[in-house]
Design brief:
453 residues; alpha+beta; MutS, DNA mismatch repair protein, domain I; Translation Initiation Factor Eif1; DNA polymerase, domain 1; five-stranded mixed beta sheet
Length: 453
Amino acid sequence: MNKAVEIEVKGRKILLKMPKNEADISFVRGILYSRWNKDLFLWEIPHYPGNLEKLDSYFGKRISKLTKDGLHQPSTISRANIEKTALLAIITQNRRIKLLFGYFPTLIKHIKTIPYAKWDSKNKWWTVPYSEQFLEEIKVHSAQAGLSLRIEMEPPKTGIAKLKPEEVARYKPAPNSYKDKLLELRYSENTIKTYIPLFEEFINHFPAEDMDSLNEKHVIEFSRFLVTDRKVSSSYQNQAINAIKFYFEKVLGGKRKLYFVERPRREKTLPVVCSEEEIKMILNQVKNIKHLAILSTIYSAGLRIGELINLPISAIDSQRMQIRIEEAKGKKDRYTILSKKLLDLLREYFKQYKPTYYLFEGQESTNDRPIKYSSRSIQAILKRAVKRAGISKNITAHTLRHSFATHLLENGTDLRYIQSLLGHSSSKTTEIYTHVTTKGFNQIQSPLDNLDI
């Protein structure tokens, strides 16, 4: 068979020259929107994601020439020379799975059904959120496609560490006007704690510059430094830009401005969730009644850790069996459920510890000066319990909130009620839990099973 097949990529078009062959022509015509250019005596194919790989997979060694935007390319264009019979799955640090493989339509079709699946046209790979369920599905479908699966862990990125204030000569703190404006606009305590260090990192990145001389050029330079040298996450970079924008727009009263900085999109990931059995194992490891009451409250009511430590005793309504959350995320109030078992546990805890204002107070609290319980201490309590339970998952206090929502969904609670209990503004945020639960999958019957074949 003649091997003289030439492919040239020009912008949004793939130009294909090949000998006349009915089988080849039939294949090319099967590609959406392909057309024969009678003036140039070649086929024009849209440079859509997957089309180049489709041609490479079909023609293989028959390709004698491949040029892309005027540059000669190797005859094999598969990413990282992935074998035609292999699939490489790389689990990334930000809880995504990169999938590198040749052109297999059935496998691609399945990947598209996975929530938040994304085609990277630049790197020529698919990414999906990491979960054991999705990894298992990929194993099954890769085997059906006759592919051997290789799973690798992405090595952690190592960048320049953030300088501590004591390591910087003439360290410049954020001006008082910055914090005053945050307080004036009623930003949350967590946002204030986040913004001030980020803004200070920015102004100290330019030690020779006066505050008044900082401008858009410095914002762009600092943002690039965070990505290329510090190698921070996309969320950290976004928060840093927001902290800087707050100064220019709110403190200085400047016009709202769009900085020409690559604002990264946060990768869509699925939350880590514990099974009901794992929650039971964790709680059974906690012997201190106060510690048990803290973790039980977070899980049974679906609270954020910040909501728990700010919870006053008066928030517990034993008559209506509700917990009132005031000024939660987004400055919103809401009610969530009060478990009967939790109420009994709180009454026992209350007899022993006798808190005065906050439901859970720090050890240094007195009747005159109640102190909130430390969020760091809560994470430490949970970490010890998880370790004793022998669970290897990366579980945080927020995992208990995710588990609360998932277990409600699995027990038949309507998503609208779960959205209200969690305090989500958008139903799309709550819908993430439909992609986490696997309950009922084994009861779903394929329509193929109903056919008499």
